[in-house]
Amino acid sequence: MNDCIFCKIANKEIPSLIVYEDTKTMAFLDISPINKGHVLVIPKKHFVNLLDVDKEYLNAVMQTSQKVTKAVKEAVNADGLNVSINNFKEAGQAVFHLHVHIIPRFKNDGLKTWERSKEKNWDDNEVVKEIKSKL
Ligand code: AMP
Ligand code: ZN
């Protein structure tokens, strides 16, 4: 993927503040952090998102994510951490190369978490059936 910014970071064609790398993954500081210590973990091979990645790289990315999450927690003395992946534009994905956000959270940091749906205008039993039929 020629014009993928995270491929360029993986190939070191553009600089980033790398905190960890191995043969399959890299972790670097987010250029526009939500909090101090906000890190992104990527596979060094191009995949669009969680739905696209193969098992080998998924395993590698998740292992690196856990390792780096532990390190970030200690490094910035975080009280908690949000670890998340945005998949597709409508879910906030802006860079279409799989990345895991590791976002340190601090007591009273003022950041909101998810708001729950107030009106449930669907049948959860139907939802369970539909999801199971796709597995
Ligand atoms: P997302 O909205 O989940 O696609 O997140 C993309 C993230 O990539 C954002 O948090 C950006 O701040 C971050 N980002 C974009 N370009 C760079 C870059 N060159 N180096 C580090 N982080 C970047
Ligand atoms: Zn890429």
Overview in brief:
The chain is α+β, with helices and mostly antiparallel strands. 28% of the residues lie in helices and 19% in strands.
CATH hierarchy: architecture: 2-Layer Sandwich
Residue fraction in strands: 15-25%
- What's the number of structural domains? 1
What is the number of helices?
A: 3
Secondary-structure element series: HEEEHEEH
Q: What ligand molecules are bound, each kind once? A: adenosine monophosphate, zinc ion
**The CATH topology, please?**
HIT family, subunit A
pLDDT < 50 runs, ≥5 residues? none
Indicate the percent of residues in helices: 25-40%
Number of strands: 5
CATH homologous superfamily name? HIT-like
- Which structural class should the secondary elements be placed in? alpha+beta
Strand order of the largest sheet: 1-2-3-5-4
Query: What is the rounded distance between the termini?
Result: 30 Å
CATH classification, class level: Alpha Beta
Mean pLDDT: 97
- Described by the principal axes of the CA atoms, the overall outline is globular
Radius of gyration: 17 Å
Task: Please specify the SSE layout and strand pairing.
Layout: H1 5-10, E1 18-21, E2 25-29, E3 39-43, H2 55-75, E4 80-84, E5 100-105, H3 124-134
Antiparallel strand pairs: 1-2, 2-3, 3-5, 4-5
Bound molecules: adenosine monophosphate and zinc ion.
